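Quick illustration, no need to memorize.
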Amino acid sequence: MIGNETTMWGALNRDAIASLLAGDPPLLEECPDLHSQLQSNGFDVTVRAVASFTLAAGAGAIGVSDDDRALPEPSRLRFGPDGWLDLGAGHYLVTFNEVVNLPRWLMALGRPRSSLLRMGVSLHTAVWDAGYSGRSQALLVVHNPAGFRLQRDARIAQLVFFPLNEPDDRGYDGRYQRENL
């Protein structure tokens, strides 16, 4: 157990995250700008790549067994010479720059930066399980009919870290372990 019965559990603060960034392995690697990314209650993650879902990407499938899972193959988009992408209304797969290395006693949730919401853009993420290591992805949805401009390395989501009351014996061991490395 990490604490005791009187311990208040909650999200890690800036100092706790900074301490884990200096660990071995560091909590996050390949961060473009640690100073601007480290926040009071989390850590901002940034855009490495964007891909679009097209008919050619194919349909996805998920069944009862992991063997019944099929992922579509979205088409990677190219940033312009100025480092920007002009995205029309639609759905996009974003790959983050940062490599996340969660110890078995820590999990994370990702939330969109509030500026996205104010622009008619949403970001959908899943849980970062304790023990996960990899370069994660998220679904970016442009609802704004006028579109959205996105620059490479832009901060678009914040990871918020939560300690578990007990370390997980196994840690994450799913198919996305070490993804995009």
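The first helix runs from residue 14 to 21.
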